[in-house]
Design goal:
heterotrimer, A alpha/beta (287), B alpha/beta (282), C alpha/beta (121), B: 282 residues, C: alpha/beta, 3 helices
Chain lengths: 287, 282, 121
């Protein structure tokens, strides 16, 4: 069992590009799209979806026969999800964090917790590759419950390639939790470096091994190499700045399928990753 | 004073390049970098820090150990597994306060914690406000609001406030565009870019302000660019700018310069033309 | 009638705060007697649910109408269910807003002007 998360300090650096091509050349790997606000992996992998399951959070439900409109639930809710109108309690589902304080504190036992759908998890196959995608309904405040659900699935998957959400928010923290390796995709510009530092800071804090891929590589790779060397981070791959990549990408085509040079690059990457994970596992069992 | 927010459904579409170019055109403005998870406008604008303040964005549980008898009730009631060995994990605590209500000794209080920093910088012909959210912290929508408040208060009656918005369609985006005069949506003509653009436009439509679209690198896929243009036409949204794929943009970024320093580049000329259009039609 | 106006300050000459849930103060004016009191809006600093919590406070204060510039869907939802009408005023003092309200010149807000979210304006 291994979990490899692909992330970047910011969106648009080539996370999905790297993950979808990597999964194409890795035998027995499952592609997992945790970029739940904008899951784009399916555009490149064209999976046949076999199953869609709903993801729920818990929200309070009030039994009107028991409720005496005392308003305690509204007072204890720090998120403003329960409002005492005097003649009834209004529940604002979108504000609820499922902390169940209302349920715990209601003196009349008038509150139960009910399910509310916030998104779904699709599973399928894309030409031999298992495919999992989390998708948050638009306007929902937090997709963390979907990510947690996917993490349960990951526990029984041989090799997971996880396409993480951009940034360093709380959904990223939940996505990369328990990863065996984090791969940080960056660009060799001062911007790329700036965002890379943020991602490195987070991954370090979570104590996960990491490596870097340079996308749109070119004459300025040195700024990334200097930083990585100083921080003892391996650079696994350089993806050149190539208009052909941009064109194929814009059409939703995987470059590892369309071009043998690139296919070989990703095969090399896959080998390096597997080696890193093995070393890491061996390193951990040493005594 | 007018406010324009620049957004894109996804990151990396050229928002910052465009924001920097617009900044160079304007004489009296405040720039607000509302991409609080990864603020980067200042890499190009190279401002000088003149002011910084802490941002306390979140309330979490704090255990007063002198009052605590380690009964463990707080651990049992927490729905977020945020308390272990009578210690609060600040990443996991959502601030619901249930433990403070359930603690038999009243030993837990809610406490505001710092989750970021707001910085004001002096830039050419104006100021830049930016913020940095601590990694893993939430509540970025509120921080965006704080940055915008700072941007409004700092300038000396600026003509323009230009907001560089965060990627995505979530709450920080909404906080970035609420109450602005217009939103400029920057899109690249890729299938995923087009999809994300439609999503962000749906969000803006709900708020109900003027929308402009700018297609960046519009020649990398003419077919998708055509689709974007017909989509915009059907929604009555003007395509204010069409920027060609321009190596000069890459060169400028490599040298950490704004594209305005390459002022005979096609990309810069098109941004100038686009800005004239926006100013006229806002 | 008791009207609650979002305000940037504590006196009646303060400017109307454009935001509802994140307004620092509310001034509650009795339109018959002209008496008014300022209240601290404790919800303004919440990272989420500020609009809803503010609406709860306004209900508890017995207000029958609200004047502000922008109101989110959560607060609007609460106002609607509570039967409290919401009116729009921009860029004027609380006093001016109340005068216009008394003359029936303020536009009623029937739909939220900003979409709900965690932590925004």
């Amino acid at each position: 069992m291994a979990k490899i998360s692909i992330l970047s300090g910011k969106g648009g650096t080539g996370k999905t590009f790297a993950s979808t091509n990597l999964v194409r050349v890795l035998p027995n790997a499952t592609y997992i799209d945790c970029d739940i606000e904008e899951p784009n992996g399916r555009i490149f992998l064209n999976p046949i979806i076999e199953d869609i399951s709903d993801v729920y959070t818990k929200v309070p439900l009030i039994d009107d026969n028991r409720c005496e409109r005392c308003g305690i639930c509204s007072k204890v809710c720090r998120f403003g999800a329960l409002i005492n109108l005097g003649r009834e309690i209004l529940i604002l589902d979108h504000l609820c964090h499922s902390c169940e304080a209302c349920y715990e504190m209601c003196p009349m036992n008038a509150i139960t917790m009910a399910n509310r759908k916030i998104g779904e998890i699709s599973t399928g196959v894309s030409r031999g590759i298992d495919f999992i995608e989390g998708r948050l309904n638009p306007g929902e405040p937090s997709g963390v419950p979907i990510i947690k659900q996917i993490n349960i699935l990951i526990k029984s998957i041989e090799l997971s390639i996880v396409d993480s959400p951009p940034g360093t928010s709380c959904s990223v923290v939940n996505t990369i939790e328990d990863s065996d390796l984090c791969i940080l995709v960056t660009e060799p510009t001062p911007f790329g470096l700036h965002d890379l530092k943020l991602a490195v800071e987070l991954v370090k804090e979570m104590d996960i091994p990491m490596a870097v891929i340079i996308n749109k590589s070119g004459s300025d790779n040195q700024i990334i190499y200097n930083y990585c060397m100083k921080n003892d981070i391996k650079v696994l791959m350089e993806i050149p700045y190539d208009k052909k990549i941009a064109e194929l990408y814009s059409r939703g085509t995987l470059i590892a399928e369309a071009d043998s040079t690139y296919e070989k690059m990703f095969v090399d990457l896959a080998e390096k990753i597997l080696e890193l994970i093995e070393n890491e596992a061996a390193g951990n069992s040493e005594w | 004073m007018k406010q324009l927010a620049i957004v894109s459904g996804k990151g990396g579409t050229g928002k910052t390049t465009i924001a920097t170019a617009i900044s160079s055109i304007l004489n009296n403005k405040v720039m607000a970098d509302c991409d609080v998870e990864a603020a980067d406008l200042n890499i190009l604008l190279k401002g000088k820090k003149i002011k910084a303040s802490n941002f306390k964005g979140k309330e979490i549980a704090a255990i007063e150990y002198s009052e605590c008898n380690y009964c463990g009730i707080c651990e049992d009631v927490c729905r977020f597994d945020a308390i272990k060995d009578i210690k609060v994990n600040p990443y996991k605590c959502e601030g619901c306060g249930l433990c403070t209500l359930k603690c038999p000794l009243d030993a837990i209080k809610m406490k505001w914690v710092e989750t970021g920093e707001i910085v004001v910088l002096e830039i050419e012909n104006g100021q830049l406000c930016e913020a940095q959210l601590s990694p893993g912290a939430d509540g970025s929508g509120k921080l965006v609001t704080e940055v915008r408040k700072m941007a409004i208060s700092i300038g000396e009656e600026p003509e323009w406030i230009i907001i560089d918005g965060p990627p995505g369609i979530g709450c920080p985006v909404i906080a970035s565009i609420t109450g602005v005069d217009a939103v400029l949506v920057v899109v690249e003509p890729t299938l995923s870019g087009f999809e994300d653009m439609q999503r962000v436009i749906d969000v803006i439509k709900d708020i109900g302000c003027k929308i402009f679209v700018c297609i960046n690198k519009w020649d990398i896929n003419f077919r998708v660019s055509q689709n974007i243009m017909s989509f915009c036409e059907s929604r009555g949204i003007p395509v204010a700018g069409k920027i060609y794929y321009d190596e000069q943009v890459i060169n400028a970024l490599k040298e950490t310069k704004g594209i305005s320093e390459f002022n005979d580049s096609d990309a810069y000329k098109e941004i100038v033309r686009m800005w004239e259009y926006i100013e006229k039609h806002i | 009638m008791r009207v609650a106006i979002s305000s940037t300050g504590t006196d009646i000459d303060s400017i109307v705060d454009e935001r509802f849930g994140r307004a620092r103060y509310f001034i509650i004016v009795d339109t018959e007697t002209g008496e008014h009191e300022a209240i601290d809006n404790e919800a303004y600093q919440l990272s989420g649910g500020a609009g809803a919590k503010t609406a709860q406070m306004i209900i508890e204060k017995g207000s029958e109408a609200v004047i502000s510039s922008n109101i989110g869907p959560n607060a609007m939802d609460v106002m609607e269910k509570a039967g409290i009408r919401v009116y729009r005023a921009y860029n004027m003092s609380v006093k001016e807003a109340v005068d216009l309200f008394n003359k029936g010149l303020l536009q009623e807000i029937l739909q939220p002007t900003s979409k709900g979210h965690h932590g925004g304006i």
